[in-house]
Design brief:
301 residues, alpha+beta, seven-stranded mixed sheet, 27% strand
Length: 301
């Protein structure tokens, strides 16, 4: 792996860089879950990132399993080509194959317009599931009747015992404890890594721009969620963990979080990220009736 010195002109991402990177995320206004400030820090240990600021643009270089790649440029539409060419010069100077990853169809087509010799492959396991805000905030419609039934069951069985609240600093320690207990029940390596990232985000509650929520039963944390604004009209659910043995808790948490925390924020869409290629996660996301999927591509020579 390159050292920061060899990756000339780039800086390894740290929590102190959040304000600068967030400024460019807001400028780019992308609807793709990997291009989200909370996601970036959650996975920074597994997918380390370096960045470089140019004249009106910022590019992120990632590294994973022996491969370097360039994320979509963070800039206004007019600077995309310049930023992509800068990335290509960097990779060429290091003798590396030029790889672009997590690109939406729209930006992928811009890359091919610059250079049609690129190869393209779809990253199906990484497609984002996008939902209509109003549908998830109400679980309206016949296809979501079972979700409403589960919520009603939860509210009836735990009436007077459950409490929903916006996450505060006073909740972090209990959420970390719950997350550790949840992690111990999971053998999947990827989910273990996700929990490590979620722990980092919780520990930096005061530094990072997210809104969390907690559900307690008899005073004990049984579920929490973390979400953040992805672009001008989309909220991204970065973390959602709950006790799977409690019927209806997951959909209750989903609904209450959206209604109470995002109803007045101009949100039209909810990005619940990808399914990681896992059939059980795919079925769970499909059961919520997505409006559409955001396709993602790996582009290379």
């Amino acid at each position: 792996m390159f050292t920061d010195g060899l990756l000339f002109g780039f800086k390894r991402l740290t929590i102190e860089d959040y304000p600068l990177v967030q400024k460019y995320y807001e400028m780019a206004d992308l609807q793709e879950s990997n291009h989200n400030i909370i996601n970036l820090f959650m996975w920074n240990k597994i997918y380390p990132v370096w960045f470089r600021e140019g004249d009106g643009w910022l590019i992120l270089v990632g590294y994973h399993k022996g491969e370097w790649f360039l994320y979509m440029p963070l800039c206004s539409c007019g600077c995309v080509i310049e930023a992509i060419r800068t990335g290509e010069e960097l990779f060429a100077s290091k003798g590396l194959p030029y790889v672009l990853s997590c690109y939406t169809k729209e930006v992928m087509e811009k890359v091919l317009a610059i250079d049609p010799s690129f190869h393209v492959e779809a990253i199906r396991a990484g497609y984002d599931y996008i939902y209509e805000f109003e549908k998830l905030a109400t679980f309206s419609g016949k296809k979501l009747q079972k979700k409403r039934n589960h919520i009603n069951s939860f509210m009836s069985e735990y009436a007077g015992r459950y409490e929903y609240k916006r996450m505060g600093l006073e909740d972090i320690e209990d959420c970390l404890k719950f997350l550790e207990e949840w992690k111990e029940c999971e053998e999947d390596t990827f989910l273990q890594q996700e929990c490590q990232g979620a722990s980092f985000v919780l520990k930096h509650f005061q530094e990072l721009p997210y809104i969390g929520a907690v559900v307690r039963i008899d005073g004990v944390v049984k579920g929490f969620t973390i979400g953040s604004r992805l672009n001008h009209d989309t909220v991204q659910i970065n973390v959602e963990k709950a006790d799977k043995e409690i019927r209806g808790l997951y959909p209750f948490l989903t609904r209450e979080y959206l209604v109470r925390e995002w109803s007045d924020q101009g949100i039209k869409w909810v990005d619940r990220e990808d399914d990681m290629g896992k059939e059980n996660i795919r079925k769970a996301k499909e059961s919520l009736q997505p409006a559409y999927l955001v396709e993602k591509y790996r582009i290379f020579k």
